[in-house]
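Box 4.2: Ligand-aware structure prediction
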Amino acid sequence: MTVQIGVIGAGMIGQDHIRRLTEVITGAAVTAVTDIDRARATEVASGKPVFCEKPLATTAEDGLRVMEAERAHGRRLVQVGFMRRFDAGYRQMKDVLTSGAVGTPLMVHCAHRNPTVPDSYVSAMTAQDTAVHEIDVLRWLLDDEISSVQVITPRATGKRFSHLKDPQIMLFETANGVRIDLEVFVNCQYGYDIQCETVGEDGLVRLPDPAAVGIRAAGLHGTAVPRDWKSRFGDAFDTEFREWIASIAAGAEPTGPSSWDGYAATVITDAAVQSLESGGRIITVDIKPRPAFYGAAS
Ligand code: ISE
């Protein structure tokens, strides 16, 4: 069976997903592409499984509306494109944490660095567009909920558009008391670099860097740093779509990140933006109780 897919939004990631669905994934065919034509978008989306690129929404209010519409429909239709859950390294980390090999998690140290961002990237996007990946993957890795956030700003890099606060440090606390520090630096210049280390009572587990040949030349020994998210997470995007298409082909509900996860992430990013705009206040995250409709956290 070939799953026919309508793509709404043909921007940069939309185009990359069309390529993936057409050239990489078997069992899928892109049969409609639409961009800003609302009537067409509604027709394409009506009653069908929806893969929504992250974020689900940029505010908690909008995320809640999507979730409530899905619940009113009575069946899970939405999968949100938090593709880190499909990355082999993060999956290994999850297995290690679940096995208990490093003991109860206590602290997580993360960094999310992009070489540069365009002028259109504004300070709120550091949470909404960039840190939202860690927010989702950490909720999933730790099987825990984020309960507060504080955003502080170190000395700003000179290599940024002047309207942007960059870098930013985000400090999260979870319901179980785990402390997470996340450096987001979107003009780091040197490459696309994702780091994550979870420290537990008995040891630590660290996300591997992507496999790359070691080069010794000109008196140095090193490996290349990926240039962008496409090369760093290309395999994760492929796995994400392969598993999504398989669930649709089997007539099953999607098992990846749900609109509940999308909504929870927007509540946390709203709180992060509020903290940033208030000069670093600690903001309590107020997520509604998880509806039984979404089952237990995976
Ligand atoms: C972009 O939208 C992504 O999803 C990338 O993974 C992230 O690193 C980047 O900051 C975002 O703008």
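In the box above, the bound molecule is ISE. The mean pLDDT is 93.
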